Amino acid sequence: MEVLRVTFKPEFLNRIDDIVIFHPLTREHMKSIVEIQILSLQRILRDKNIGLELTPAAREYFADKGYDPVYGARSLKRLLQKEVQDALALKFLEGEFGEGDRVLIDYRDNRLILKKEGTVSGAVKQRP
User: Fold this and answer.
1) Would the pTM of this model clear 0.70, i.e. be above it?
2) Is the pLDDT of residue 124 over 60?
3) What is the pLDDT of residue 127?
4) Element (H, E) at 87
5) Which residues contact 38 (CB under 8 A, 6 or more apart)?
6) What are phi and psi of 36, to 5 degrees?
7) Cα–Cα distance, 118 to 64 (Å, whole number)
8) Rounded mean pLDDT of 7-13?
9) What pLDDT score was predicted for residue 15?
10) Number of domains within the chain
11) Partners of 108 in the beta sheet?
């Protein structure tokens, strides 16, 4: 607060109702944000009868790559869109995955791997 008083005139500071100080995100914050984003995606997919799990290595990958020092965690959402949602959509369109499948995402050998890991418990597949 002292820095503000030295930098700005009192007339200006009196016009400000509240001051919020933001601290940089830590690695632990990023892990928590990854969990929140994954839970949101899992809920969306669950409504479509699709299961989604991530290995710890995949979660670490998203926590590391989804962080930008300037923009914080904003790039994480774009990263998940591109590398998970778009990749899943493509695999469903190609017929590799289908309704009722459980998909596991892993990170090995510097790449993401999406593979079918059984079915969602209680899944009923639609017949054409």
Assistant:
1) yes
2) no
3) 38
4) helix 86-93
5) 52, 54, 59, 62, 80
6) -65, -45
7) 28
8) 88
9) 86
10) 1
11) 111
